[in-house]
Amino acid sequence: MALEIKQSLRMAQQLVVTPQLQQAIRLLQLSRMELTTMIQKELIENPCLEEEEEESETVKLETKEGEEESSHGEAHEQAKEADKGHEHPFDEVGLKDPEPKEPSNFDWENYLQAQDSPSGAYERNINGPAEELPPFENTVKKTETLQEHLLWQLGMTVHLTDEEHAIAEEIIGNINDDGYLMANPEEIAKGAEASPESVEAVLKKVQEFDPIGVAARDIQECLLLQARSLGGEEGELLCRIIQHHLKHLELHDYKPIAKALDVPIERVLEIEKMIHQLDPKPGRAYSNVQTQYITPDVFVTKRGDKYVVTLNEDGMPKLAVSPLYRRAILHGETVGVQAREYIQDKLRQALWLIKSIHQRQRTLYRVTQSIVKFQRDFFEKGPNHLRPMVLKDVAEDIGMHESTVSRVTTNKYAHTPRGLLELKYFFNSSLGGRGADGTASEVVKNHLQHLIAKENLQTPLSDQEIAGILKEKHNIDIARRTVAKYRETLGVLPSSRRRRKHY
Question: Which CATH number is associated with domain 143-210?
Fold first, then answer.
């Protein structure tokens, strides 16, 4: 069969995801902090973007001193007109932006000197010469890491040889943030070019450093190091229990421990309390992980009989198109061809970004409104009235795709009369029925927590017993294995581990 080359014409449809559409999709799933960071980055990289002034500032600029009250209202209307630029930024933004004039008698030389001086900010507020003020680096807080703390102690240890010092540095370099040694003596010996016996000897010296329990290889050794530091009879009892009776302690079986140590059970219970006071992660006190506070994306407030959704715009930069570059496009004869093409490209990017951010905010508002409508009983009566709901319910309600709802509820939080909640919290699978006729999984977890909190620790409830109680009291038909799954999700131990024997 001979091969033949020919041309043919065929029509076909193909879905193309443009860069602009990719950006809009990416904006949907960004958290509030990530969105703010991205906007700040775009403000730096795109010269056609600028942060819009607050309305009050606009009024101040456009209103001259001594004008009648009517002029204030006129300026306010101009500010509102400028704000409409978010819908059509290219046509509206920046048409009447006033340029502040430089005062004729302003002393720029002294002003710049004050700004350039590192202590200029202090000189404007604090009486006295700048030489008496602390240096700037002393005002900046820096958290000391665990490795830095250990290396500082190593530097203060003078009775080590050069070889031991090198081994100690290798050991400290293999300690994780929790304070545990993550390499065995053979690996450390290879890195330090020393013998495993030398490593073991130096390791014992490093384990004497602060915090107590550092450089342990497992949790048992970590607790032992802390118990030995206590000394005395209590320290000795602690060491013996940690070395030989952790399994009995885990099961709350105190009789074998009391018999082996030849002490009363009450004494064992006292020692158990001391063990709970030991730190299983001694290095976390030097963790450089900073606390990240959650800022709500939306507010849900009750006004009368209605729940009102309000977007949190506080601290969110409002974008506008720079009037300077807009005028450069309108008067193209003063701009070169390449410069004009560059400005046009940046303008398109700026306009699309503004439009995408507004679309994101509108979508977030509509999704939250739909959630509030479906979960009104939750807001009125509490967590036990949370309704089973899936992404499809909200998607059909607002006429969007499920993937869009999923993206816009990712890492988004709502401040509600019931507390600060992630939007994903309101989506729950249904048990014992379909849709609204069933029970939300979060409701089952809430019942489970209450039952375990009130149980008798001498005879804790088994998973099967919990399933029976849920069926009898709450009409929730649930399997034992489902109870076990939810219990593990909540971090609750099985009944055999929760049991406390009576003595």
Answer: 1.10.10
